[in-house]
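The authors assume throughout that readers already know how a fold can be written as discrete tokens. For illustration, here is how one protein appears when written out as sequence plus structure tokens.
>
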Amino acid sequence: MNLAEKSQATLDVFGELESETKQFVSESGLGCVSGCGFCCANPKVPASPLEFLPLAFDLYAKGLAESTLESLDSLEEGASCVIYRPQSADGKQGFCGNHSKRGMICRLFAASARKTKYGKKDLIICKVLKEEKTAEFQNTSERINMDMEIPLATAFYSRLDEIDQSLCQQFTINEAIAFALELVLRYKFYEEQEVDVVA
């Protein structure tokens, strides 16, 4: 698979995850609180370059790849996700600047589970939802181990691993986005060189 095909394969996985998370959120009532950017403001969110290839290709198509990479290079250490648009002084309120091309970690949070060493499903969720939707959180925590379907994070990460294990290495979110942008810029540069040679 070339880089564009890997990006499309990643989008296909996202499509499957989207339908599963929609079902889960509608049944659990645990959708994110409107306007909350608590998770997005965390600079240490772990992510892989592969999950941000679709974003990088999208930014390239919009002519924003190089300027976004420059923004990433000038960010201070500990800055929140470059795509996040904070709307409050503390950065905890805001929205994603490219929601349709957000990464896997952004899609899984509050809508997936991990298995404990005892085989029990454990909801991956933030403290905001635990506090704001306590009853839903407690009810869902019980039901995911009885009768409620929930996406398993490990299963979806395994699917990405199958596309390209080397691109699934974990970085901070901004490092992962920068890595993906560099790959796409290099890929597009060589692709254009080949077109010139053929012409």
Summary: The mean pLDDT is 93. Strands lie at 46-47, 84-86, 94-96, 112-115, 121-124, 171-172. The chain has eight helices and six strands.
